[in-house]
Amino acid sequence: MRIVNPLYDQAFKYLMENNKLAKKMLSVIIEKDIINLQSQPQETTLTVDNEEIKLHRFDFKAIIATESGEHYTSLVEVQKSRYPDPFNRFRRYLGINYIKKQEYIDKDGKEQKKHLPIISIYILEYNLGRHKEYDTPLILVENQVINGLTKKKINHKHKFIQLLSHPMRIVQIGRLKKIRETKLEQMLMFFDQTCKTKDKYILEIKAQDIKKEFNEMAKYLAELTYDEELIRNLAYQKDYEKYLRNQNIEKEELRRQKEEEKRQKEEAIIREEEERRQKEESNSSLKKVIIMLIGTGKKIPEIAVMLDKTENYIKKIIS
Known about the structure:
Layout: E1 2-4, H1 9-17, H2 19-30, E2 33-48, E3 51-65, E4 71-81, H3 87-99, E5 102-105, E6 111-114, E7 118-124, E8 138-141, H4 159-164, E9 168-172, H5 183-187, E10 202-204, H6 215-223, H7 228-295, H8 300-307, H9 311-318
Parallel strand pairs: 4-7, 7-9
Antiparallel strand pairs: 1-10, 2-3, 3-4, 5-6, 8-9
């Protein structure tokens, strides 16, 4: 079965705009029951060959059910990165969400505007280092409240703590296993980059591996392969990323060349300094010999012949 690659921005946008599938996907990742989901996509526009491409991140206002049956509203921030070191971008967006009051509909259907607790989801195509303990497709970062004296966990989270700290879910697509037993692993098969075709923005997955629970998601992503405008935008994004990679290669090559030129200049300075030092040491030793010979009554012409030097050179050394 051919599906669009949801790690490409336009394909991810289409997936996240389907409220039912977005709610399903986020519920699986945060391992909580999402009762209601309100989307607020953010766009960044890029231009490739006079064609505009919009890159996206998503903020969701989610009403989440707790195990005790209570409901609370949280901002679920979803970002993804196909290349390492996106920290500045992730921190910038996170900072904006910490500052901004959110407008949303609460569990009673009333409009609200206030700061919300945050859950961050980062979907990464690359891996977080080589530490064996990170060898998992999902890393949970949970903020615990601890009594500083007894070191015991405090189960209640005050609003002060909820609004100034947040949990994270880090999805490492590159660490998906071949045997997928959990619901998360079964869903993430739609992100498996080992299934990329030559077009890269199309994945070829095995229909028999799709669990019934995710049939609707599979069908939706498969239908998008027939959307000509979407496929054209995915191709533009692929070309743009290729352009960026080439630009980065050129910049890296230019950087290496400059570093090599700098290294050669520094080595030349070191060689010149060493030659100067050796020459000074040689002249100092020669001067001592000349002074010693003069002390024995030798004349400069005689010394010049003995040392195979010109008279002017001998005079310059002792001057």
